Amino acid sequence: MKKVLFIHGFEASANSVWFPWLEQQLQQFGYVVVNQTWPNPKHPNFEDSMAFLEDLTRDFLPHDSIVGHSLGGFFALKLAEKRELDRLFVVAPAVGVLPYARYRKLWPNSNVEAVEQVLEHPVDMSKIRAAHKVAVFSDDDHLIPIQSANEFDDSWNVLKLSGFGHFQEKSYPDLFYRLMTM
Fold first, then answer.
1. Which residues lie closer than 8 Å to 154 by C-beta, 6 or more apart?
2. C-alpha–C-alpha distance, residues 138 and 158, integer Å
């Protein structure tokens, strides 16, 4: 059986955004979905989060996949540096130059400094080994600038969409179709 790991974002959980919907869709196709809230999503720590996620993927094989959203997209990239995958699907991944000042205004009671510390661990795109690599961005995302798409080279299928914001709806049938057919 093929497995898929979902990795949520900052201050989120396994039940956030479109994860429950996509989990249900993938299970109908026989996938085993690993969808758990990582430790301390309101105060993320790179080492603790990576240890947790590495443990979840300990038995992943090259035909398995990872889906990450926002800060979870960053963690998906970091995991993919260490293992071969079939599909790596990152949606609004936290990479590139990010607007931390905007984050502080939007979330005055949030630990934005912890996010900055997590993202001090650069992604080495040359180490990522996935047969299918997809990065998805929206031109009206108020958290991840569309310019972050420039972090991905020609080996990626980079989708620059319009009108999706930070991809926080409860379902995205079109994105699911793309994931299944890439």
1. none
2. 11
The dihedral over CA atoms of 87, 93, 94, 95, expressed in degrees to the nearest 10, equals 70
CB 162 within 8 A of CB 137: no
Contacts of 40 (CB under 8 A, 6+ apart): 48, 49
Euclidean distance between CA atoms 3 and 68, whole angstroms: 14
35-45 per-position pLDDT tens digit: 999 999 999 99
Structure-token match 């993202």, residue found: 119
Longest dimension (CA), the chain: 44
Residue with tokens 């994860």: 19
Numbers of helices and strands, H then E, in the chain:
6, 6
Q: What pLDDT is attached to residue 181?
A: 64
